[in-house]
Write a structure and sequence with these properties.
The N and C termini lie far apart (42 Å). Strands 1, 2, 3, 4 and 5 form a five-stranded mixed sheet that branches. A four-stranded mixed sheet has the order 7-6-9-8. By secondary structure, it is α+β, with helices and mostly antiparallel strands. The chain contains nine helices and nine strands. Strand 3 (114-119) and strand 4 (122-127) form a beta hairpin.
Amino acid sequence: MRAPQEAHQAVLTNTFEARHGVLARGYGSAPDPADPADVLAMQVVLRIEKRDPPARSALLAAAATAAVALCLDERSGPGGEWGPALHAWVNARIRKVTRRARGKQWEDVQELPGVTVASGGAEARALVPGAVGNLDPRVKKLQISGTDLPDDEPGEPAPKLPVIWIDAALAMSTGKAAAQVGHAAMILAGAMTFEQVRNWARHDFACSVRDASPEQWARLQEAVRSGDAVAVRDAGFTEVAPGSTTVIAEPHGLP
C-alpha cells in the first residue's frame, strides 16, 4: 500500500493539466507483445438498437467524445484507479476495437469501468483499455461486425467546437470510422494548448463528425501541413491500406 504522504502527493498531481500532459506527450510505439492476447486496446461500444438506430454522424461524434473524455477523466490521472491501464495503453499503440450493443447488452456494459457519452440521440461507451485476451465476458460476446449505418445529412458542424472530418473516398464502415475518430479526438486534444482543451472540457468534449468531399479533403490536408489540424494515419490492419490518412480533426475556432 502507498504511504499516506505518497497518496496525498499522487492526489495533488492528478490535475487536469497533468492528464492533458499525458496526451500532449504523444503516443508510444512500443513493439507488440509476443503473445497477441496481451495486445492492449480500448473497447468502444456503440449502442445500435434494432429499432430506431441512431444517425451515423451522431454515433461517431459520441464515440470520439467518449474516447477523449475517458483519457481526461480524473480516474485516468496519476494515482487514479484507471491511471495504470490508461498509461500502459497510451505508451503502446492506441488501438481501439468497436463493438455493437443493444438492449440488455448495452445495460450490462454500463457496469464496466468506462465513460458513456450521448450525442444527438446516439450513445457510445469507451471502456478502460486492457489486454484483448482478457476481456470481460459481457464485452467479449458483443459483435464487432454489424455496426454499419447509412450515411446521413447532419448539416453544418456546430460553431466553435472541433470538427473531425472523414475521408469519404475510403468508404470505411461505421465501426472502423468510430475507432478512427476516437484516435483523432485524442490526438487533437494533445495538440491543443492547455487553455483550448480546458475550454473544450467545459463543453463536455462535444464535437461534430462530417464526411469530407474531395475539395474539402484537399483543404484539410493543407491545414495539417500548416499545423492547423491533425491527421490520423492508419496502420492498415483492417479495411484501408497502411499509411492511409483516414480522418483529419481541426479545432474549428475553439478559443
